[in-house]
Amino acid sequence: METKILNVDLGERSYPIHIGEDVTASIGSLLADRGIKPGTSLLIVTDRNVAALHLDRIVGLLGQAGYKVGTYIAEPGEATKSLAVLQDIIGTALDTGLDRNSVFIALGGGVIGDLCGFAAASYMRGVRFVQVPTTILAHDSSVGGKVAVNHPKAKNVIGAFYQPEIVIYDTKLLLTLPPRDVRSGLAEVVKHGLIWDEDFTSWCNENAGRLLSLDLEALGEALYFGCKVKAQVVSEDEKENGLRAILNLGHTLGHALEAVAGYGELTHGEAISIGMVGAARLAGKMGYPGDIHTVTKALMEKFQLPVVIDAAYSTDDIMSAMQHDKKFRDGKMVYIVPTAIGKVKIDSSVSADMVRAVVDELKGGE
Amino acid sequence: METKILNVDLGERSYPIHIGEDVTASIGSLLADRGIKPGTSLLIVTDRNVAALHLDRIVGLLGQAGYKVGTYIAEPGEATKSLAVLQDIIGTALDTGLDRNSVFIALGGGVIGDLCGFAAASYMRGVRFVQVPTTILAHDSSVGGKVAVNHPKAKNVIGAFYQPEIVIYDTKLLLTLPPRDVRSGLAEVVKHGLIWDEDFTSWCNENAGRLLSLDLEALGEALYFGCKVKAQVVSEDEKENGLRAILNLGHTLGHALEAVAGYGELTHGEAISIGMVGAARLAGKMGYPGDIHTVTKALMEKFQLPVVIDAAYSTDDIMSAMQHDKKFRDGKMVYIVPTAIGKVKIDSSVSADMVRAVVDELKGGE
Ligand SMILES: NC(=O)c1ccc[n+]([C@@H]2O[C@H](COP(=O)([O-])OP(=O)(O)OC[C@H]3O[C@@H](n4cnc5c(N)ncnc54)[C@H](O)[C@@H]3O)[C@@H](O)[C@H]2O)c1
Ligand SMILES: NC(=O)c1ccc[n+]([C@@H]2O[C@H](COP(=O)([O-])OP(=O)(O)OC[C@H]3O[C@@H](n4cnc5c(N)ncnc54)[C@H](O)[C@@H]3O)[C@@H](O)[C@H]2O)c1
Ligand SMILES: [Zn+2]
Ligand SMILES: [Zn+2]
Q1: What residue owns the CA closest to ligand 1's atom 16?
Q2: Cα of B251 to ligand 4 centre, how many Å?
Q3: How would you list the strands of the sheet with B15-20, edge to edge?
Q4: Whole-prediction pTM value?
Q5: EC annotation (chains A, B) (predicted)?
Q6: Same-domain pairing of A108 and A199
Q7: Is the dihedral of CA B258, B263, B265, B268 positive or negative?
Q8: B3: part of which helix (H) or strand (E)?
Q9: Which of A176, A203, A218 is the last residue of a domain?
């Protein structure tokens, strides 16, 4: 596949995303083209899984290109997105003599991207950073500039809006992904179709098999499209004041399910798959065409993603997890509702009772 | 004294500084004028010393003005500027239900301003904040938007550039300051004269007695001028790419002395007092007029600030602390050198040997 280049348009903070098979092979020249001169000190932040599979090659390539390369290897998993690990990364940055001209490189999935991005935003009040995403889900997290770590009491609540210099997205690195992370990441790809483009949604439907089997051509297309939708939305609303909320299709219920299941039980993609089916069902109740629900549900099933809520989870718990999300007011809540395939609206007065009915139906497995 | 209002000109991030006796009495309407509507949730971050003296009154005033007020009381001292305390503040913010529309209020000296400012910059990726400085030194820290916490290995190395909505600087709150903090803060006031304005330097010399005895009229003048110089420099160089370095007069040596003495032994103002005398002495060696040194030294003595280095500190340690500061290269270093009273230049090739000679002379107490 040819490399595809997408520009995220954010004025002087604009940056390119390079997507393609083996794009990391030219990582050195890509950095140089973005003004990161050979000789610059880099700190690669990654996790143990990714390090075992891909770190040596990237370190070798950057070394050959004349960069000074340090590494920080974190434990895999959401718990790594913490201030404690951030402090540890900054310690490594200091020990290896990184200064204001140095560059952080996030080599990993969304956990590493969010963590390393916030470390870069904070180190000496901000140094440059580069995203080298290694998961499918990271097509979502690497675009948009939201970086953060978690607080023990809430996810992503300590962070910044901070844009990378470049995103280098090598589809070949995805070949080592565990199948569950493949499916989970594809849920966000499909979401980008459902909120923005009916044709791309059909394309996803037709190409589900190729995507699940990691056909690099199909993956490149899908990531390109997913990044493009996200980039368009973000360009229009960098600081999340309005439009950007449409990216949360399936997330109100999805987040609640993740919390109630206990983090890690359901992957993020699995949770929002159920969430998107729920939103489609809600749309039906609100009078939008019934095929939104049938198409959405069939699509998720095609991607081998869950579409029902485990009956063991209490509806009250799920509702109160949504309440905690601060999205309720006077029995009404803000909800992203699909109005057709490829279209959604932000509805700020959805009845909580109607949402509860949807939750119960999803538990019934209808 | 009449309230003085100064505008810090930073495009859409511009903000006003209100300086005067009892300006906090109208804190509610000042907030409302800046678009912070009554009903908004506020979190006041302060330290135990300041809380004991001033917190109840401020909470009362804000409550009367219709705000929802939470408080976080930290331990006094530099150790409070840590990620651990930041995490604790964020926990309180979550517990009290602060959302993206809420406002953090820094009530305290530079420690609280830096800490609370970074908490505000990071909480939910950035909420508004307000500075209510309670030390003289905070005229420096509350202007310019540098916020940060410390890493165990280095000061101020985790932070952001983040501007407040307004600075409310009530000279009356300064009446409770311990004398050593008064003198220390005045060292930075005098520095702003030495780098920028000969007339103001003379004014400081003539009014040292009034300032040391906390005459509110004189204090208001001094803080206004100090903030004005800082604001002008910062407006021209928000992200510290060039000019802003002149604010570091006395700081290269000053920081080294703080480190070698052990933090807390010398206050920051005491350390930079010696640093400014050192810079003046260096200027003499470099051929600039000798009165720079005599005037600077006399001025510091008038403010009861130290002008010599304790002979117990090793010159080697001091030199290597400066080296650690990354300001050396090939026996040369960047130094802010006074070229006249009220004028400095950034000299990037000062000989390290000459600096060493100055350190030795300062230890001799000449
Ligand atoms: N910033 C944003 O806008 C945004 C958007 C969506 C999600 N996120 C965040 O992203 C995170 C989830 O991202 P994720 O699903 O990529 O998680 P992740 O980074 O934890 O990666 C998932 C797992 O895959 C492993 N892995 C990564 N790349 C691999 C590869 N190439 N081969 C084999 N194993 C590999 C990892 O070690 C990990 O165990 C969450 O923390 C979420 O909050 C952020
Ligand atoms: N952000 C910047 O641009 C900048 C510039 C200069 C200094 N700083 C930072 O400022 C800090 C030093 O500031 P500081 O000297 O104000 O320290 P501080 O905040 O620790 O205050 C000094 C002491 O005075 C007490 N105090 C404060 N107000 C009082 C009052 N009204 N009455 C009685 N006691 C009071 C405090 O409890 C503390 O013990 C350092 O951390 C330094 O890094 C930041
Ligand atoms: Zn998501
Ligand atoms: Zn200072």
Answers
A1: A109
A2: 7
A3: B4-8, B15-20, B166-170, B128-133, B103-108, B41-47, B68-74
A4: 0.94
A5: 4.2.3.4
A6: no
A7: positive
A8: none
A9: A176
